Amino acid sequence: MNAVRLEIADAVWSPQTGLLEPAGGAAAALDVRGEAVAFGPAREIEQRFSGLPRKAGQGVLLPGLVDCHAHLECAALASKVPGGDGLGPWVSRLVQTRMPMTKGDLEAEALRAAKEMRALGTVAVADVCTLLATAPILGEAGLMGLSLLEVVGANEPAIAAALQDARLRSTTPCAAPEVIPVLVPHSAYGTMPGAFAQLKGQGGVRSVHAAEHEDENAWLERGEGPFAPFLLSKGAVPPRQRPLPFLDSLGALGSATLLVHLVTASDAELRMAADRGATAVLCPRSNLHIGGRLPDLRAIRAAGIPYVLGTDSLASTPDHDLLGEVAVLAEDFPDVPADELLEAATTRGAQVLGLTRHPWVRVARSRLGFLVPRTGAEA
Ligand SMILES: [Zn+2]
Questions:
Q1: Is the pTM of this model over 0.85?
Q2: CA–centroid distance, residue 26 to ligand 1 (Å)
Q3: Residue 14 has pLDDT above 80, yes or no
Q4: Nearest to 348 by CA among 305, 286, 300
Q5: Who contacts 16 (Cβ-Cβ below 8 Å, separation ≥6)?
């Protein structure tokens, strides 16, 4: 496509080149879809595309951030749900805190958070919702991606009602042609096994929380732990299997599947997920808040699972800045190239969400503190 405008900045980043900080500044020539047709030293790009409207400013130009797991409907719970003692107690507090809130409260805060997310440089999101229909909210905030309508229920009547409700929400009319609604299960413990048949396509389910915390394993493997009293009272039966083998037995894992978290997965389970063609979605700051433990990025890479990043919800993370997730992983896994982490947060996320276009954005250099220019690239 033809370039229609120029963005001038201090630096430019792409997965192919890494960070380029040319002495005279950097530039990108963008097409009508916001994608870069060319980028590099400002002098060269301005010469090549002279006559186009130009916007000069500070910061770094790069492909937009793609958040592959968020819960915008939890924005009203920001900083209200303490963590540190595990998934079960955290979920209980979340449900209690949310109880008095109205749908209107949740919607207003979700829209505010979505706009903030866009302002931070995120161009697309896979947003999970159990109560709202977030496609119109994403559209209004200028975000693309998926509105994942979650089906939660521990017994037949609950799941039938949740399925019907999700189908209704998926048809909420909205002017957001670049947001696709998809029905998804919550997890191996939050969604009855029988519902998976209706939630999976040829490539498995589109997204599912999996291996997030030991509390999940306690229920699935042994029928114990903080989830047990509630689930048993609803008539749920523990499958006596760990989350990934159980999800696999339901046919839930495939090439379309976003496996969210993977904190407690074993090496063999990670290899099995890789064999099925699934993608890992890591939400490190949320994992630290809830359980104090990060996903094992080294094991995930060694197993050959492609990974992308998500911010999860404001009930477990301080903001929807995806670069915050990159920074945590860069610090804890210094042996993983920072360019690879940023690629996971941008172009790989776009690929995994199946975006039809991937606009570029400008972010402050200080937000990319984990990046160092490639040798010789500063000339
Ligand atoms: Zn989540």
A1: yes
A2: 37
A3: yes
A4: 305
A5: none
